[in-house]
Amino acid sequence: MTRKEYIAALDQYLVTMSASEKADILSDYEEHFRVGLENGKTESQIAASLGSPYDVANQFLEGEKPKTPTYPARTAATASTTSTTATGQRPAQTASAQTYTTRQRPAQTATSQGYTTQQRPAQTAASQGYTTQPRPTQTAGSQLSQTTQANPYRTAQTAAQSGTAQQPQRQIYDVGIQNYAQAQGNQQGYSQPNYQSQAAQNNGGYVDYDRQAAERPSYSAPSEGKYNSTGIILLIVLCVVLIPTVGSTLVGLLAGLYGAVVGFAAAGGSLIAVGAALSATSIWTCVGLVFIGISFLLLTGLLVIASIEGTKLFVKLIKYCIKEGKKLVTEGSF
Amino acid sequence: MTIQFKKGVLELCVLSLLKDGDRYGYDVACELSKAIGISDGSVYPVLRRLKDDGYVTSYLEEASGGPPRKYYVITEAGSDYMNTLKSEWIQLTSQINTLLDNGGQTT
C-alpha cells in the first residue's frame, strides 16, 4: 500500500469525524510517512508497520466514545475501492447486534454456579462488543452497551451474593477487567448504583447523540425576537374588544359603588346621628344615635380600605394581563 | 483483557516515553513498537486521546530541511496520571503473579 492509498483509506474510514479533526489526524500520518521515508524506508514498509487503516480508524473512533453511528463494515472496506454506501451493510450490522444480544441472554440469567465458566464467554463477547461497537445502528448500539455493561456486573453481583466460595474468581475478574476502580476486591466498587450510573451515562451519551443527530438538519430553536401571528391576533382581539368592555364596566361599577357608599355612609350617617343626637330628648336616645353615627363612620372607613385594596387587586390583574399578553404574543398560547 | 485495560497500558507506555523528553510521533511509534510490538499506527490514537484529556500537548518544530514536525509533551496532569497508571499496573501485575504462583495448586 502506498502512502497515498493509506491516507485515502484512513480518510474514508474516519467518516464520522469532523473535517478539522480528520485533517489533524491525517497530518500525523503524513508526517509519519515523511519521517519514515527520510529514515530510508519504503512507503509500503511504513504502511505495513502502521497496521491496517481500518484498525487504526477504529481506534480513533473508539476514543470518541459513542459518537459513531454508522461505520463502513470491514468486509466491504477491505474489498472496497469506492462504494461504502451503508444500505448494503445495514442488515449485516443489525444481524451481528442481534446475535450478540441473544448470546448474552443465557449469561444474564445464569446462576452463580455458572459464573466462572459463563463469565468468560461473556467477557470476550464484551470486548468484542467494544471493537465492533461503532458499527451497529444507534439503537442497537445503546442496547449493546447496556447489555455489555449489565452482564458482567450483574453476574458478578449474583456471584458475590451467593457465597464466599466464588470470591477468589470474582476478584481476579475485577482486577482484570477494571482498570479504573481500585482492585481491592471491594464489593462496593461494583454495587448496583455504580453500574447503574455508568450504564445511564453511557446510555445518556447515545440518547444525546441520537437527539442531536435527529435535530441537526431540521431543528431551529424559537428565537426571542420571533412573534407568533395567532398570538398577536388573539391579543388584538383581547385589547380591542374584551379588555375595554370588561375593564370599563368594572371601573364604572367600582367607582359608582365606592362613591355612593362612601358619600352616603359618611355624610348621611354622621349627619343623621349628630342631628338626631342634638334633638333627642332622652340622654340614652342621644347616646344610641351617636353610637349609630360612629358605626356608620367605621363602616365607611372599612369600605374605603376595601376600595383601596380592590384597586390594588385591579392593578395586579392588569399587570397579569400584560404579562400573559406578552407571552401570548411570543408563544401563541397562555 | 478489556479494551479499557489495554488502553490504560498503552497510555502508560506512551506517557513513560514522553516523560524523558519531547518526541515526535514517529519516534514514539518506533520506540513503542520496538518495546511491546504494537503496530506503529496504534500510537497516534493514544496520543490523540491523551491530548484530548489534557495529559499531553504538542508543538511544531522545524526539522532540518523539511516541513515542521509535531512534538508531543507530557503535561503536569499527564505526569500525575502516569503515576496513577503505574501504581495500578504494579499492583495488578503483582496480584497476577501471586495468582500464577499459587493459582494452580490445591491447598
Secondary-structure map with pairings?
The complex is a heterodimer of chains A (334) and B (107).
Chain A lengths: L2 H11 L5 H20 L4 H8 L2 H11 L10 H6 L10 H20 L5 H18 L5 H25 L4 H11 L14 H27 L10 H51 L3 H49 L3
Chain B lengths: L2 H17 L3 E2 H12 L6 H10 L3 E6 L7 E6 L1 H27 L5
Antiparallel strand pairs in B: 1-3, 2-3
Give the averaged pLDDT of chain A, no decimals: 62
Structural class of chain B: alpha+beta
Annotation field: number of helices of chain B: 4
The percentage of residues in β strands of chain B lies in 5-15%
Describe the overall structure.
The complex is a heterodimer of chains A (334) and B (107). Chain A is an all-alpha fold and 334 residues long. Helices cover 77% and strands 0% of the residues of chain A. Chain A contains twelve helices and no strands. Chain A has helices at 3-13, 19-38, 43-50, 53-63, 74-79, 90-109, 115-132, 138-162, 167-177, 192-218, 229-279, 283-331. Chain A starts with a helix and ends with a helix. Residues 66-73 and 75-224 of chain A have low confidence and may be disordered. In chain B, 62% of the residues lie in helices and 13% in strands. Chain B has a three-stranded antiparallel sheet. The two termini of chain B are 27 Å apart. Chain B is elongated, with a radius of gyration of 17 Å. Chain B is an alpha+beta fold and 107 residues long. The model of chain B has no long low-confidence stretch (mean pLDDT 88). In chain B, a hairpin with a 7-residue loop joins strand 2 and strand 3. The interface between A and B is medium-sized, with 37 and 32 residues.
